Amino acid sequence: MQMGKTVVITGASSGLGAELAREAVSAGFHAVLVARRLDFLEKIKKELDPTGNVRVFQADVTDRTALESVFREIGQVDVLINNAGVGYFAWAHEMKPEETVQMISVNVNGLINCTELVIQQMIERRSGHIINVASQAGKLATPKSAVYAATKHAVLGYTNSIRMELARSNVLVTAINPGPIATPFFDNADPEGTYIKNAGKIMLDPVYVARKTIAAIGRPVREVNVPKWMAAGSIIHHLFPKTVERLGRKVFFQK
């Protein structure tokens, strides 16, 4: 599956996206990196360029017109990893309207934009893989993440629907549901460092998440849930919501 295949990674300028780029190139893929910050992309390309397997494009996933131009230039997309995302933690009544709009625009609309631009070609070839980076927050919402969790619930709903649709065309669809990852994501989400301080011991290594993600390419994997204990917690919450919310109250209010 790997050799010669093209993997498009959005939000690839830093954090998990940058690690996904490194792992994809290491696995033998041709990596196409898309993000708003061209200088960051160029730095990653320079790091990985000896392979000759990296192309970079500056684009905002919320700009449909720009994306259409980018994807026309990219051409065939064998794997799309929708990684671009943003989050802000605040009480629902204190969330800034512009931050709400941004989360919905990037996390939901941006992901759908990119997906819609590759679906038709994958259907026609009867091959391809769409990987959507969601979150454990899409399974178990907690205080101070109402909008963020809502966007990730939307991502999982969209992912589950297109998985069934595209199965008829032999196109794979996978959701990646990580817990908190030690990346610059929290520079915006948690500028005061409260959550990182309280949850530091459970923060995931982005290299580990990236390896799990790239390893799923070409395999009929429905979801990748890390860490497993957190995924188990969301299942138990689904079965016994009141009990989990009562017993886990102290943990859930750590943000």
UniProtKB/TrEMBL annotation:
Source organism superkingdom: Bacteria
A GO term from the CC aspect: membrane
Alphabetical UniProt keywords: Oxidoreductase
Signal peptide positions on this chain: none
GO MF annotation terms: oxidoreductase activity
UniProt similarity note: Belongs to the short-chain dehydrogenases/reductases (SDR) family.
Protein name as catalogued: Oxidoreductase
Organism: Domibacillus epiphyticus
